[in-house]
Amino acid sequence: MSSKKQSKLADDSPIPDEELRELEVQLSKKLPQYKNLPSQERREILSLVMRSHSGPLPDAETLSSYNDTIPNGAERIMIMAEESQQASIAALNKQLSISEIDVKGHYGSIKRAQVFAFSIAILCIGLGSWLVTLGFSTFAYLLVAAPMLTLAGAFIKGVFTKSKDGE
Q1: Whole-number Å distance between alpha carbons of 131 and 143
Q2: What are the per-10-residue average pLDDT scores of the chain (167 residues)?
Q3: Residues near 151 by Cβ (< 8 Å), separated by ≥ 6?
Q4: Are the C-beta atoms of 43 and 49 separated by less than 8 Å?
Q5: CA 119 to CA 154: how far, in whole Å?
Q6: Nearest to 129 by CA among 140, 118, 145
Q7: Distance between alpha carbon 1 and the CA centroid of its chain, in Å?
Q8: N or C terminus of the chain: which is more exposed, having fewer CB within 10 Å?
Q9: Is the pTM of this model over 0.85?
């Protein structure tokens, strides 16, 4: 079990000595007058530099200081965060509903095209059969073969397009 030597900053938060030294080196490079400051002031500067926060809201200490500076500051910040979150959720829901409408419209269009193609195929087969009974077999074969080959080509093209999109 390795134990790292730790120091405490002005706000009593522990930090490893290596990080403390590295920070002091960085501060000395950026601010040459840093080394001339009294020890307590350097510690306070380090505590300010070391403090960080990540998230949509400030930490409790910062919220409290807002409350001291601005009347109901913490409450106002909380309300602002809640409203922002509600706006984000509303925008996401709107985007999802638009996408859903687009998808439904797309599949409706595909379904209509399939029904239309099937209707044409049945009509051509019916007319071809009728032409065969009248003795026009060459015209009947052309009438049946042309739409069938077109539909088969569209189907094959659709299958290859889907397989390329899946890769």
Answers
A1: 9
A2: 42 59 80 81 73 72 82 87 89 80 75 83 87 88 84 76 60
A3: 117, 121
A4: no
A5: 15
A6: 140
A7: 42
A8: N
A9: no
